[in-house]
Design a protein that fits this description.
single chain; 488 residues; alpha/beta; Nucleotidyltransferase, domain 5; 2 domains; two-stranded antiparallel sheet; 17 helices; 38% helix
Length: 488
Amino acid sequence: MVGLEARRAYEIPVRADGAVETDADELLGHVWACLDEVMTQARHLTDQIAGVAVCTFVGNLLGVDAFGRSVTPLITYADTRATNEAAELRRRLDEESIHQRTGCHFHSSYLPARCLWLQKTQPTLISQAKRWITLGEYLALQLFGETAVSYSVASWSGLLNQQQLEWDAELLGVLPLKREQLSPLVDVDQPWRGLRSDFAARWPALRDVPWFPAVGDGAAANVGSGCTGPDRVAISIGTTSAIRVALTDPVPAVPHGLWRYRVDRRRSLLGGALSEGGSVVAWLKRLLNFENLPDVESVLSTAPADGHRLTFLPLITGERSPGWAAEARGVIAGLSLATTPLDILQAGIEGVNYRLALVFDLLAPSLPAAVEVVGSGGALQSSSVWPAMLSHALGRPVRITAVEQPSARGAALLALEALGIIQDAGQLPAELGPLHLPDPEKHTIYRKAIERQKLLYEDERRRTKDEGRRSKDQGPRTKSQHPNPNTQ
């Protein structure tokens, strides 16, 4: 089936109130259309299909009724409306002990805070939803009439006790959520067979082959880029960005600021993620009208490291690693009349790299000294300058994967493991491409810029907390305190 593919572009809208949600049925409609197209391309090769592997973006939530119909939008990890509920959980529970059990901090991107937010703001939806699932589970529910969730996807919820591989009892005790409203937990090697009649008629060649549970796209990307052990660290920069290392259990304590997710029952992922990556560049190109200028990268390739002297805090959609402040926002400091649009774009890329370097610093004590860094993701793989800038910021060589779609390849390799066709995905040679070496002088410049960005971050966090305290001290306004709406 090599070379057969279908794609559909899809953009999830972002609202000013922090909502990032979409229609799950519309998304699945695109999946079905892609399958139609691939099966048409396959023609006489369909008898060679041994199974179907699935990976999805993770950290999403969907409520369905007793008949398996969606009753809520699909809310994604990028939605920040549950920020206050994450703070509430910190006040009520011991975050550090839960961090060690679940691998996750309290944050608006995870299920616990989101459930509390739904209870407070949309109680009708809470009563209508009989089950709470993710996109991959919804796909299986439509295809087979039943569903389960892999340890991999469940670990991104913030509700999986990874020490016991069970839903966490303490968290369930404080949430408006019962265990029976969550899917059964399974590993990635436990497939379904036997499509429902309408889908069996649509794709007869897929009717009886095993369909494997969805795995997290980050876990699949590590496997697909050859980062299946502690000797290789994966750095993905797509719309968002992440640093991940695969470790075999038992895993040491999770450093504060990082997370631990799952590949499967025997392999974990230790690392951190940013809500920003290529999204920052795409946003700046739209904002600065760069989209139609083909020579941007060639200009950036000759620009001095940090030559603009701007400090860019790229938290335009809140913060995940390392500070987990969902309410944080982006800042550009140091603007002057001499600042150019290209300066701002360069500072945006460098700003993302600085945040990744901070995450790498937290991860480094858990890594061997001779670890290899492998880069992947559309923003990184499509750029001629970003990989080198990342290498300079880390002070380490960065090898770019030669695999165009590491997540898809990783999901396929995990399915081949489950089918017994290969023994271990880690035994296959990694498909690696160009190597980018760090420039010591640029690394020194970038480390100073990282310290400058850290100071800006700390100043902004203090300011935000002070404003929050002042707002709380002032209390709600009385009617007489509101300004006259007719007064300019």
